[in-house]
Automatic annotation (TrEMBL):
Conversion of NADPH, generated by peripheral catabolic pathways, to NADH, which can enter the respiratory chain for energy generation. It is an enzyme of class 1 (oxidoreductase). It comes from Lacipirellula parvula. Belongs to the class-I pyridine nucleotide-disulfide oxidoreductase family. One of its GO terms (biological process) is 2-oxoglutarate metabolic process. Residues 4-330 form the FAD/NAD(P)-binding domain. Its EC number is 1.6.1.1. Keywords: Cytoplasm, FAD, Flavoprotein, NAD, NADP, Nucleotide-binding, Oxidoreductase. FAD binds at residues 51, 315. This is Soluble pyridine nucleotide transhydrogenase. GO terms for cellular component: cytosol. GO terms for molecular function: dihydrolipoyl dehydrogenase (NADH) activity; flavin adenine dinucleotide binding; NAD(P)+ transhydrogenase (Si-specific) activity.
């Protein structure tokens, strides 16, 4: 029987970074993957495909150029699904290769098959050709999640689908209903609307992306409506079915019945109401680990499950369920497993959110609503892209960046941005916050010009000027 120092289950971002970290510590490490491709949701169905589709849509339609050059910059008149998928497949293939080479270079053994615990320290790996039982001192479970697929929804992969299948559509529909206004729902609604698809988005709560600062989510909802997206907020879908109507000729449509009595019809429907774990298949009863009703695992601050030699990281442990945080969790879990304590301070509250909608949104730290609820005195400082030279050059007149500044200490408590480059811009604020910086940092330092980073200066002036009147 082969023996390893560490076995990692799943090659998504949490597994990848955990495996490389274990190899760098000189450990004998194997990583197991049940799918025929590497990279998990990050590379194959989630982060990279959706972001590649977004880039392709923005480029081919010229949507990111319109402000400055007018609406005539469309690169291609009739955009086909083949144009879009060609671009994302190219990126996906490149990413597979990057991961494969990283494993090879670092001596990580890659084994293909479905992993299942057989007993303490024993894991069975089964594929179409063979079954093998492996032994290890430590394990890291990074099996991720899959889209929720209730049996009441008649999924057919072509007109009623989840985010796993949207990237395999064989044609661009004229109309789409998106059920769920979480990050997946809003990102795809924006991409499709950019491509000229008429989108109706149904969200159960009264507001999209309720974790965002209210001013930003209000601005975003305005943008979505401006793009022609119909928002049905505070509405729940009670029934989804395929129907056939005769209107001169036969049309196959999808019909969504809302609890309020409304009926929606479209050519296609994306169902994006959250994700579900895959722990049932792991044989966790053999090692004494339990999971919750959504098949998520509980871990402590070191990412240990209740069985101390079995760790878990990434989406399988729930919030915040991001590729970015999954990578760091995987690395930290392995460091702890092998007694490496010097992994640097990590403020688990201070990770950024990047939402690749159109426009981009990003945030780090607290929102105005949270600070108010916690009784923390703050002032806001705002910069609008239209008053920043780089914003004008980019043709983005509606972007903005907001700093939340402590009224007494001037420390930065939160940064919120919407507009071009928001997901990159946020890291300047994140670094200043992590280093316990204040608004004066932005005033007293010189930034490249013209850049969007100037927003930080303008927002700091704006906030500090307001505070001068409070003294
Ligand atoms: C549409 C979409 C867009 C997203 N966009 C972003 C984004 O822009 N930014 C961001 O940070 N995050 C984004 N995410 C979230 C991100 O993709 C996930 O947080 C991340 O992939 C989780 O990584 P993971 O390693 O935990 O699991 P996964 O990436 O899900 O990988 C788990 C792997 O484990 C394998 N596996 C499962 N069970 C077994 C088993 N029994 N044996 C062997 N292998 C097994 C699976 O096949 C899979 O390859 C997005 C997600 C989706 C769905
Ligand atoms: N850019 C990014 O970082 C990014 C992008 C995509 C996905 N993700 C990750 O993927 C995970 C899953 O995303 P998601 O959007 O599927 O889930 P989610 O849980 O974030 O959102 C689901 C939404 O559906 C709504 N909903 C539920 N039932 C409904 C019904 N019957 N009718 C109408 N609305 C209903 C909920 O109110 C909720 O707003 C997230 O946790 C996120 O972290 C991240």
């Amino acid at each position: 029987m082969k023996h390893y120092d560490c076995i990692i289950i799943g090659t998504g971002p949490a597994g990848q970074k955990g495996a490389i970290q274990a190899a760098k510590l000189g450990k004998r490490v194997a990583i197991i993957e049940k799918n025929p491709v590497l990279g998990g949701a990050q590379i194959n169905t989630g982060t990279i495909p959706s972001k590649a589709l977004r880039e392709a849509a923005l480029y081919l339609t010229g949507a990111n150029q319109r402000g400055l050059f007018g609406a005539t910059q469309q690169v291609k008149k009739h955009i086909t699904i083949a144009d879009l998928t060609a671009i994302s497949q190219q990126v996906i293939r490149h990413e597979w290769e990057v991961i494969r080479r990283q494993f090879e270079r670092n001596g990580v053994e890659l084994l293909w098959g479905r992993a299942e615990f057989e007993g303490p320290h024993l894991l069975r790996v089964q594929n179409a050709d063979s079954t093998e039982v492996l032994e290890a001192d430590k394990f890291l479970i990074t099996v991720g999640t899959k889209p929720a697929r209730p049996s009441s929804v008649p999924f057919n992969e072509q007109t009623i689908f989840t985010s796993d299948e949207i990237i395999c559509l064989d044609r661009l529909p004229k109309t789409m209903i998106v059920v769920g206004g979480g990050v997946i729902g809003v990102e795809y609604a924006c991409i499709m609307a950019t491509l000229g698809v008429r989108v109706t988005l149904v969200e159960g709560s009264n507001r999209l992306l309720g974790f965002l600062d209210r001013e930003i989510s209000d601005a975003f909802q305005y943008h979505m409506r401006q793009k022609g997206i119909t928002l049905r907020l505070g509405e729940k879908v009670s029934k989804i079915e395929e129907i056939e109507i005769q209107n001169g000729k036969f049309h196959h449509l999808v019909q969504a019945q809302l609890e309020s009595g409304k009926t929606l019809r479209a050519e296609t429907l994306l169902y994006a109401v959250g994700r579900q774990g895959v722990c049932k298949a792991l044989g966790l009863d053999k090692v004494g680990i339990e999971f919750d009703d959504r098949e998520r695992l509980m871990v402590n601050e070191q990412y240990q499950t209740n069985v101390d030699y079995i760790y878990a990281a990434g989406d399988v442990i729930g919030f915040p369920s991001l590729a970015s945080t999954a990578m760091e969790q995987g690395r930290r879990a392995v460091c702890h497993a092998f007694g490496v304590c010097d992994v640097g301070n990590y403020n688990t509250q201070l990770f950024p959110y990047g939402i690749y909608a159109v426009p981009e949104i990003s945030m780090v730290g607290k929102t105005e609503e949270q600070l108010t609820a916690e009784g923390i005195p703050y002032e806001s400082g705002v910069a609008h892209y239209r008053e920043i030279a780089r914003g004008k050059l980019l043709g983005d007149d509606s972007g903005m960046l907001k700093l939340l500044i402590h009224q007494e200490t001037h420390k930065i408590l939160g940064v919120h941005a919407i507009g071009t480059g928001a997901t990159e811009l946020i890291h300047i604020g994140q670094a200043v916050m992590a280093l316990n910086g204040d608004a004066e940092f932005f005033i007293n330092n010189v930034f490249n010009f013209p850049t969007l980073a100037e927003c930080y200066k303008v927002a700091a002036y704006n906030g500090l000027n307001k505070l001068n009147h409070v003294r």
